[in-house]
Design goal:
Keywords: Repeat, TPR repeat. With 130 residues, this protein is an all-alpha fold. It has 7 helices and no strands. Helix 3 runs antiparallel to helix 4, helix 3 runs parallel beside helix 5 and helix 6 packs antiparallel against helix 7. The N and C termini lie far apart (42 Å).
Amino acid sequence: MYQLGIFYANKGEVDEAIALYNQSLEIEERIGDVQGKATTLYNLGILYANKGEVDQAIALFNQSLEITERIGDVRTQANTLWWLGHLAEQQGEYTKAISYLQPALEILQRLKSPDAESVSASLDRVMGNS
């Protein structure tokens, strides 16, 4: 289900992708796949954010963040923080955005991720607005 969700998301068929991700979530919960659940919640958050349903996206990202912090999935944690920072910035909540982007940057720098550069640019932009 998860892979089909990715397929439909990439084709731009967002509602179908959301339905498949929700089915994937049910399966992951049933079998106890905590890592899969965190990743699916994260991907659902992206879809809702791109649809403009920011409150739903934030709720999904927060669920994913709670799981990734608990299980030590720092890559997904950093990406989730990055998205939360982006959404906070869009809403003009610059202090909140910084509180998400700063730890995202620290994690990505520690992982030597090329994404650290983009997060750093986001953080600089937000700090200039706050």
